[in-house]
Design a protein that fits this description.
heterodimer; A: alpha+beta; three-stranded antiparallel sheet; 10 helices; disordered N terminus; disordered C terminus; B: mainly alpha; 3 helices; about 0% strand; rod-shaped
């Protein structure tokens, strides 16, 4: 990269940061309300637990950090994000109106409040009614807010687009050889093609799945890595995101399924048995096979979700231990542990992306198989 | 399960689906297709040039084998030519020797014949001369005998001496 382009990039970065700052980094002050009849240590433990739980969930504002003032009030540093609600027409306002869930937000004469990270319609006083299971019974409008997770996804989408567009362009500019960051990513692209797609799907059909496999691999990997940054993003540990990815795998598998794929599900024994012998077996076999269609992508979504969620919980708990120990021995120990777990999490970030891609490719392989299971059964 | 369902956010799902599908389609058009095409092109060109190199190597080997064979043939031909020439020269020398011998023999024979002839002629000549001398001596003896006996004898003696000297 030449000096001038680097300068321009730096300038771009500075401008971006300025916009970020000017667009409203707000510091809000709230009164701290320490719960009664709890010891200081228990308060702290509860605080850490709440903090972890809060971190794991999506958030309506992009808070970088918060601290407690000398006068006992919380100060939040971060960027409020737009809230978009469908409640007889779109209601759009900034999340700073909620003051981090402490107050009721008003839009077009309607009042909304955040309860357990969900937006409910309420009155001016912010009353929430609960049923016997402690679930809020207030009306919840359709929520299309640009949350922290959505911002992170957008960032990843832009980053991936520019990264791989650059790689694609570098081929024509550099006579068929990748240049720049693409040199690092090209072998990974080739690895996905040669060691994930072709062995699992086969030389004949792999091409139509390549775009999905590549996109999903880098998307999950980048978001996993982004989750390890101090920004505290937890997108791939969110059930809605993993559900969406698994749903796409599910749809792709079943909509590209060949005749043999469906035959395998509804006639798994093929011509090895007479039809009357198959009936009692099929009463059990077919439901299992049909369930398998749904269980396969479901395992994908739970695996990714649970792994990322667990990683974040372990890491943040270890960091939280530092504040609980507050000793010369305990704190360095938990720091060392947190550091080791962080390194493992970097590996897990890659591993989970690999597993998701690998298993998706495997399912696509099932979907595009052709006349192989008959031989298989004979071989058994 | 209930916790999972309560955590599920429709909004996030909506945005994720929208953004991911948009990313997928954009990357498919602008990135994955060009990247995979470029890589494929590069791979086929590498494969082609490798096979071309192999082909050239094979051709080279054929040419080299040809060269070797031609060289071998040329050498064999040269050897054959040389040995033939040697044979011819030897034959020629032998022929020449034989011819020379025949000539020499002829010359020797001729010379011998000539010598024989000369010898014969010389002997004949000698014979004639001896006869002549004998006649001359006889004549002179006869002449001297006619004068004096002593002188005659003396003469004969002298003559004989002369003959002996001669």
């Amino acid at each position: 990269m030449s000096g001038s382009t680097r300068f321009i990039l730096l300038k771009k970065k500075t401008v971006f940061l300025l916009i970020l700052l000017l667009s409203g980094v707000v510091s809000a002050k709230e009164k701290q309300q320490p719960p009664e009849n709890l010891s200081a240590k228990e308060t702290q433990k509860k605080e850490i637990k709440d903090y972890i739980m809060h971190h794991l969930q999506d958030s309506y504002d992009f808070s970088l950090f918060s601290y407690t003032n000398d006068d006992g009030s919380h100060v939040y540093i971060g960027v409020p994000l737009p809230i978009i609600l469908w409640d007889n027409g779109f209601k759009v306002f900034l999340s700073s109106k909620f003051h981090h869930g402490e107050t009721v937000a008003e839009a077009d004469g309607n009042f909304y409040t955040i309860n357990h990270n969900k937006i409910y319609k309420t009155d001016q006083a912010g009353t929430i009614t609960y049923d016997e299971d402690h679930h809020a019974t207030n009306f919840a409008p359709l929520d299309f807010s640009i949350t922290k997770g959505v911002v992170s996804i957008m960032f990843t989408v832009f980053m991936m687009f520019f990264l791989f567009k650059n790689l694609a362009d570098s081929y024509s500019k550099n006579s068929g050889i990748a240049s720049g960051a693409g040199r690092f990513f090209e072998p990974i692209v080739l690895y996905i093609r040669d060691d994930i797609a072709i062995p699992n799907i086969g030389e004949k059909h792999y091409k139509k799945y390549m775009s999905f496999l590549l996109t999903v691999f880098f998307f999950v990997w980048f978001l996993n890595i982004l989750g390890l940054t101090p920004l505290g993003i937890n997108v791939t540990g969110n059930i809605a995101v993993t559900f969406c990815l698994a749903l796409l795998t599910f749809l792709l598998t079943n909509f590209t399924g060949t005749k043999d794929y469906w035959l395998h599900i509804f006639d798994p024994l093929g011509s090895t048995l007479k039809w009357y012998a198959k009936i009692p077996l099929y009463i059990i076999l077919i439901p299992i096979e049909v369930l398998g269609i749904f269980i396969k992508p479901f395992s994908l979504l739970i695996r990714l979700y649970a792994n990322m969620q667990a990683g974040h919980i372990v890491l943040m708990s270890l960091i939280g231990l530092m504040f609980i120990f507050k000793s010369w021995l305990g704190s360095p120990l938990s720091f060392g542990l947190a550091f080791a777990i962080s390194l493992i999490e970097v590996l897990v970030a890659l591993l989970q992306a690999y597993i998701f891609t690998m298993l998706s490719a495997l399912y696509f392989g099932f979907a595009s198989e052709e006349h192989e299971h008959h031989d298989e059964i004979e071989a058994h | 399960m209930e916790k999972l369902l309560s955590e599920f956010s429709l909004g996030l799902f909506f945005w994720q689906l929208l953004l991911f599908v948009a990313l997928l389609l954009l990357l498919k058009k602008f990135a994955w297709k060009p990247i995979l095409d470029a890589v494929n092109e590069r791979e086929t060109s590498i494969k082609d040039s490798l096979s071309a190199a192999q082909k050239a190597r094979d051709e080279m080997q054929v040419v080299q084998a040809d060269n070797k064979r031609i060289l071998k043939e040329a050498r064999a031909e040269r050897d054959a030519l040389l040995s033939e020439a040697k044979k011819a020269s030897i034959q020629m020398i032998n022929q020449a020797k034989a011819d020379a011998k025949v000539d020499a023999d002829k010359i020797t024979a001729q010379a011998q014949e000539m010598i024989q002839n000369e010898k014969k002629a010389a002997i004949n000549d000698l014979k004639n001369q001896v006869a002549q001398l004998s006649v001359d001596i006889a004549e002179k003896v006869l002449q001297t005998e006619l004068k004096d006996k002593e002188a005659q004898e003396k003469l004969v003696e002298e003559l004989v001496k002369e003959i002996a000297v001669k």
